[in-house]
Amino acid sequence: MMRIAVIGLGYVGLANAVLLAQHNQVTAVDISPERVAMVNARKSPVDDTELENFLANKPLHLSATTHIVEAVEGVEYVIIATPTDYDPNNNFFDTSSVDATVRAVFAANPNVLIIVKSTIPVGHIRKLRERVGNDQIVFSPEFLREGRALYDNLHPSRIIVGERSERAKTFADLLLQGSLEEDVPMLFTDPDEAEAIKLFANTYLALRVAYFNELDSYAMARGMDTRQIIEGIGLDPRIGDHYNNPSFGYGGYCLPKDTKQLLANYSEVPQNLIGAVVDANRTRKDFLAEQIVARQPKVVGVYRLVMKAGSDNFRQSSIQGIMKRIKAKGIEVVVYEPALDEATFFGSRVVSDLSDFKDQADVIVANRRSDELRDVDAKVFTRDLFGAD
Predict the structure, then answer these.
(1) Which of 37, 195, 272, 346 is a plausible cystine mate for 122, CB 3.0–4.6 Å?
(2) Domain with 318 in it: what CATH number?
(3) Does position 257 have pLDDT exceeding 60, yes or no?
(4) Domain annotation covers residue 359
């Protein structure tokens, strides 16, 4: 049984902590006392069915604390899963939380192997090793969905570690040991290549989202049935019928920042395609906002800010871009979001009663359909054609 510390209790950190705590002694660290208390009470601070189930019902060797020094003393591995937001002013990821955590860990335990799970720019691990004078830092990308983070760790599509070494293989085996799969592809790469895999994978997904949204905008503008077109092209096995549901544009935490990060990384090489993906996302939101405004509503209701079912995260959700464009036309916007305990959201009133919300809104904007809105279907504006995230 290994001793492991996991720093950061968001989706990525908590999913890894729970996965590994099935067979190892894991101490989770977070700056939020509330999150730490919830984990110690075996409750999930994020909305994730599998995480809630495992914390409540599975035997886990897991504890949580706000004290990083005591958590990392004597452990063999430290996993860092702290936030890395895109900084538009510097045109780069803000990796300060990762860098500061690495220094704090090495100050307490200079021989531990640090595994970075946070999304970082290409070349960051190589440069960070040089800056801190320690090569005990490895990047291992995550490919998790919000709301299904532990499920995706239990059933991984692949395990990638950005180092070709025995210690990298040992860590990969720990991840495999906690999963419910026996035959999982493993790939061991150099550091820069592992970072590029993460960014390019998310950018491809953003490209696919942008493609089906552009198809939908084309069909809407010409009064055509989008679903018929998507079903027809999806019969081509090279395209397939997955990840094809139109939306209000890609959003969430990973896709926007990763595509912008790639644009920054592409400063010295051609980047036409990725630039087009970023532009297409903006154009999609413009087009849909115009469609809503054309209905001449006095009040537009936004049903849920979250990106998708089973998520409680509305950082950079695409629907916010629609809201801003509608409000710029002088139209009042009200919000229904049970996960939000505030009276307003960026200047828009939050209506906590669903019936009251339905009565107030002339048009209800919903990124995904819900049974809760069936009685006001005539008011609902959505591009959810397949009922899938």
Answers:
(1) 195
(2) 3.40.50.720
(3) no
(4) yes
Helix (H), strand (E), coil (C) string for 242-311: CCCCCCCCCCCCHHHHHHHHHHHHCCCCCCHHHHHHHHHHHHHHHHHHHHHHCCCCCEEEEECCCCCCCC
Q: Which residues are catalytic?
A: 254
What are 172-217's pLDDT values in tens digits?
Answer: 999 999 999 999 999 999 999 999 999 888 888 888 999 999 999 9
Q: Using one digit for the tens of pLDDT, what is the confidence trace for 323-335?
A: 999 999 999 999 9
207 falls within a domain? yes
| Residues annotated in a binding site for NAD(+) | 30, 35, 84, 119, 146, 257, 315
Does one domain contain both 158 and 58? yes
Binding residues: 30, 35, 84, 119, 143-146, 198, 243-247, 251, 257, 307-308, 315, 389
Phi, psi at 293, each rounded to 5°: -60, -35
This model's pTM is above 0.90:
no
Last residue of a domain, one of 168, 189, 210: 189
> Residue 343's domain spans which residues?
198-381
Number of domains in the chain: 2
- DSSP character for 209? H
The answer to whether 39 and 64 are in contact (CB under 8 A) is: yes
**Residues of each annotated binding site for substrate:** 143-146, 198, 243-247, 251, 307-308, 389
Residues 221 and 173 in one domain: no
